[in-house]
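Example 3.2
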Amino acid sequence: MGDCIFCKIANGEIPSATLYEDEDFRVILDLGPASKGHSLILPKKHAANIYELPDETAGKAMILAKKMAGEGASQNEIATRLGVPSFVARNILACARAYSVEELEQAEEDFVDAEEAVKTGRLQDVLSVELLIVKYSTERKR
């Protein structure tokens, strides 16, 4: 979005102290930190909040949160980086802890593929969800 300061920072139009960057996100140190090391995860594509992020980007944010937790970031730091309330970060982390990064990446790919199959008419939405439930409930029983 043209006037969004976060988009300008994420896309390098405004200088920042960048901690991490990939094709989807830029993680920066906050100018007004709530605590030492306080940082923000900025998606490079505009979204008013996490609920407006495309599913694939939100999935990548979960993987990034898992990696940050592995590096010792607190729930509050992760919430701030993701731009979500602390209770949302707690729920994301609870889900993320149950899986390895590789499993989360595979799930993200599977869910994006299922969404594309529904959007293109190859699968009905209910069937795509049922197939994912069967796949992931069976795999977790190992």
